[in-house]
UniProtKB/TrEMBL annotation:
The lineage of its organism: Eukaryota, Viridiplantae, Streptophyta, Embryophyta, Tracheophyta. Its EC number is 6.3.5.4. GO terms for biological process: asparagine biosynthetic process; response to stress. This is Asparagine synthetase [glutamine-hydrolyzing]. Residues 2-185 form the Glutamine amidotransferase type-2 domain. NCBIfam families: asn_synth_AEB, PRK09431.1. It comes from Vigna unguiculata.
Length: 579
């Protein structure tokens, strides 16, 4: 993984331009502290800042084909690179890097090879034979990427806004699952799964197929030549990630290099719900557990740094990014270079508490599709940038292409929340891992109610942020909010406060347009707010805003969700996964 920056067709091959590209590339140095490089071919520049994880000794970039006519700078992990190398017997590889296959696949298949890649990636490929280039981003947008255009006719590509916002006339987020070709001068979608059309699937629920698909997704991500760990909040998603990793780590190449003892990490305010649950899970699965505490003041002190790094003014993203940002610094100080994390499950399975109010399976499924499509603007952005601020990579098995294919093909009737039948949020995932003979997790953890990360680190966290914003944003300022910020006008003092900081770092109109907006309750899309008339008066991204659902909802207006009924025992067949 690394930070990439490319300037293409700028009509300037001078030393001064090279110095400028190097200067901008250094703005991404936090993403890749291990090595930096710049390749220039005429008026095209490919720069990178490398975080070395696979083949740290020889995998420096840019990467080339045999005669160096094709150059690639890439931020990513290609999990099936060994299989792809076998499909390229007539090619000679210069490094052991997993990304070394990209230039050679292009030689064989032209621009139509991207769907062959199983992994997360953003890359720029320059073909010096005809001075053309292509840019591509992974299916869901796990890696961050932006594209910009200069007045001189240049095209700019950067892993972060700060690499191009000062030099482009217009810039925007590069759409996930797309490829941009200089020959066509337009985007085209390379990732076209059935769920993208939002058609309602009808496949029956097979718990073992779902379990096996997730286990394969976790196992393939244990590709490493450096130390790693797992983020463990004690919630369902991170606990399953940790449990599966711990169960299958032994026998992998990662274990041969770094041992079979998995390290887990958790962050929270003193007494936070996550800390207790995470410690219990860690003891149960046998990890070496690291618990980090922070105070509300620690978080407040980090707000400006976090907004600079994550490049958004979205309230829920900032709330959750701050503890993750603080934890990532601690993790990196221990010598760990990447972690496995649980992002994506709530979007795929309708895990957010507002899904309790989905009126039917059609709207339930369509909302999950909308949530997955928007992940690159929210949780993927948070997980990528708050960790990479300290040169730490996050891998997310729930967003594996094959796993999403299996999970999104399930008839959404099985995902619907029906408390009277003992089916709480993410019931299909919980049941898939409810193994009586070889349990993955304690039963009460497997059926723990959803806590959004910004809530689970401590309920006092969000209340503290709101109180801090109250001190800096007056009622008079809010009266003028629509005039000061006509686009995505902040409706709360907390949102106004974050927006002021963002605009100071990124004042361009293009920058503010990269951030999504609209009404939301408990992380819903604007469309799902329509599911409950009461929500329109309680628009807050916290899970506690799901009145009538969350056991600690604002105002203590509701009772806790009823205990789940006993789930019938399932027969277990062999996994059938080669480790």
């Amino acid at each position: 993984m690394c930070g990439i920056l490319a300037v293409l067709g700028c009509s300037d091959s001078s030393q001064a331009k090279r110095v400028r590209v190097l200067e901008l590339s250094r703005r991404l140095k936090h993403r890749g502290p291990d090595w930096s490089g710049l390749h220039q071919y005429g008026d095209c520049y490919l720069a990178h800042q490398r975080l070395a994880i696979v083949d740290p000794a020889s995998g420096d970039q840019p990467l080339f084909n045999e005669d160096k006519t094709i150059a690639v700078t890439v931020n990513g992990e290609i999990y099936n690179h060994e299989e792809l190398r076998k499909q390229l017997p007539n090619h000679t590889f210069r490094t052991g890097s997993d990304c070394d296959v990209i230039a050679h696949l292009y030689e064989e298949h032209g621009e139509n090879f991207v769907d062959m890649l199983d992994g997360i990636f953003s890359f720029v490929l320059l073909d010096t034979r005809d001075n053309s280039f292509i840019v591509a981003r992974d299916a869901i947008g796990v890696t961050s990427l932006y594209i910009g255009w200069g007045l001189d006719g240049s095209v700019w590509i950067s892993s972060e806004l700060k690499g191009l916002n000062d030099d482009c006339e217009h810039f925007e987020s590069f759409p996930p699952g797309h490829l941009y070709s200089s020959k066509e001068r337009e985007f085209r979608r390379w990732y076209n799964p059935p769920w993208f059309s939002e058609a309602i699937p009808s496949a029956p629920y097979d718990p073992l197929a779902l379990r096996h698909a997730f286990e394969k997704a976790v196992i393939k991500r244990l590709m490493t030549d450096v130390p790693f760990g797992v983020l463990l909040s004690g919630g369902l998603d991170s606990s399953l990630v940790a449990a599966v990793t711990a169960r299958y780590l032994e026998g992998t190449n990662a274990a041969k290099q770094w041992g079979t003892k998995l390290h887990s990490f958790c962050v929270g305010l003193e007494g936070a719900p996550d800390l207790k649950a995470a410690k219990e899970v860690a003891d149960y699965i046998g990890t070496v557990h690291h618990e980090f505490h922070y105070t509300v003041q620690d978080g407040i002190d980090a707000i400006e740094d976090v907004i600079y790094h994550i490049e958004t003014y979205d309230v829920t993203t900032i709330r959750a990014s701050i503890p993750m940002f603080l934890m990532s610094r601690k993790i990196k100080s221990l010598g760990v270079k990447w972690v496995i994390s649980g992002e994506g499950s709530d979007e795929i399975f309708g895990g957010y508490l507002y899904f309790h109010k989905a009126p039917n399976k059609e709207e339930f499924h369509q909302e999950t599709c909308r949530k997955i499509k928007a992940l690159h603007q929210y949780d993927c952005l948070r997980a990528n940038k708050s960790t990479f601020a300290w040169g730490l990579e996050a891998r997310v098995p729930f967003l594996d292409k094959e796993f999403i294919k299996v999970a999104m093909n399930i008839d959404p009737e099985y995902k619907m929340i029906k408390k009277e039948e003992g089916r709480i949020e993410k019931w299909v995932l919980r049941r898939a891992f409810d193994d009586e003979e070889h349990p993955y997790l304690p039963k009460h953890i497997l059926y723990r109610q959803k806590e959004q990360f910004s809530d689970g680190v401590g309920y006092g966290w969000i209340d503290g942020l709101k109180a801090h914003a109250e001190k800096h944003v007056t009622d008079r300022m809010m009266l003028n909010a629509a005039n000061i910020f006509p686009f995505n006008t902040p409706t709360t003092k907390e949102a106004y406060y974050y927006r002021m900081i963002f605009e100071r770092f990124f004042p361009q109109n293009s920058a503010r347009l990269t951030v999504p907006g609209g009404p939301s309750v408990a992380c819903s899309t604007a469309k799902a707010v329509e599911w409950d008339a009461a929500w329109s008066n309680n628009l807050d991204p916290s899970g506690r805003a799901a009145l009538g659902v969350h056991s600690s909802a604002y105002g203590n207006q509701v009772k806790a969700v009823e205990p789940e009924k006993i789930i019938p025992k399932m027969e277990v067949s062999p996994l059938g996964v080669v480790i």
